[in-house]
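Researcher: Checking consistency across runs. Here is PrsW family intramembrane metalloprotease again:
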Amino acid sequence: MTAPALPSPRELLWQPRNWTYWVYLALLVVAFFSLLSAFQPLQVLAPAAAATAVGANLALGVVVGLVVVWLSVIHRPPTTLAVAAVAWGGIIAVAIAFYVNDNLLASLSTTLGAQTANDWGAAIAGPSNEEWLKAVGTLAVIGIGIRWVSRPIHGLFIGAWCGLGFQVVEDISYAMNGALNDPSSDATGLAQILGVRGILGLLPSHWVFAACSGYGIGYALLRRDRPLPVRVLFAVGMFAVAWSMHFLWNSPLITGQLEPMIGMLVKVVVILAGFFVVYRLAMRAEWRWYRHVVATDPALAGAAGADGGAQPGLGTLVTDAEIRSLRTRRRRYRVRRRLRGTVRREARGSANRRGAKARGRQAGRLIRRLQRAQGWLAITAATAPDQLPALRTRITSLRIDLARLGAAPGGSGTERRRRHRRADRQRERRDVDRARERRGADRPGGAGLREPSGTDAANTDGGER
């Protein structure tokens, strides 16, 4: 199930009364033509390298995008806002950063000296300019879709999408410049840049930095139950985390003391570990909020059923066992795999192997839809309670479909073992019947004739005599 019908996405694409929307569109148009003029000479000088750089970095961007989608376990902001964030990061932020970075690097050369600026200029100019550009983009996208964004973790994902757009376009520019400036050939320079920035720097890059600062922005804007100084301090702290990660990645620290490749790998581990801590804290806070809303919200009164019964009632929105299984994708997958196996074993008593597998796959799809619908319970109750009847109907219909297949998510282990034993007995009886039919068909004279026993043969001989 996709997101419940909160406000229509058409309203998101057209907001004439929202000044943030108009500022965003104006900046997008100006930045697009600015980037077009900047990339045009590179495309003319090396068209093959330009096409390769664009295709390779777009493919790598899709990989990172799938990672971001995979990380959004419970719920995520609308796709339209994700596209808007990618456009800000890939067009507006990059166009501004091209000019601001050059000016700041020139200023650092004058202030710190040519050698110091050459060693530390990227570490200072990069995070100082680019992180606030991505943070402003996250703030602008949240301002455009404020009615669709209600949780701090939405800021984390919007920031990640904004950073992903910046990362893809910046890597395209680096790859094209590397192809032109390499003394050997365009292919050599392009391969070197793609190897370092596209593969080694694929994960610990701008989307990670912007996700951290975006989480702070989302917390400051959306956690109105917290005091304002606490929210502002948290946002500043998360921006400092993002800035520090970016600084470490661009600086000669670690790589200057170790072998370059080993130093880069150490940086990758450190940055990803820091992001994992931030993501873990965000997901734990989101999970506590989900359980609190499901347990206490009046609109979801009685939503969580107990685990004592063999299986949840068809009108139960979510059981305690199902709530625990929704927390991570691994737990969700285990539930789907277990129920697929249950349905397959039970179906083998009345269907062939292929039909049993098909029923198992169908049960897996239904369980996935049920888990998605249950994940939207808290956010729907908090932001659009008028949509809860439709969500309740959806969950009930999915439970009915699962019951028809013999699947019982949340059923007790004893009940599942009983069903498995019944299915095994049915399968054994079916195998015995098939063996009898096979033996009868192999005998001469047909399946309906049988050989006379010893007593019958004696009686027959006596009668003949």
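Researcher: Does this match what you'd expect to see?
Model: One thing to look at in this run: The chain has 17 helices and two strands.
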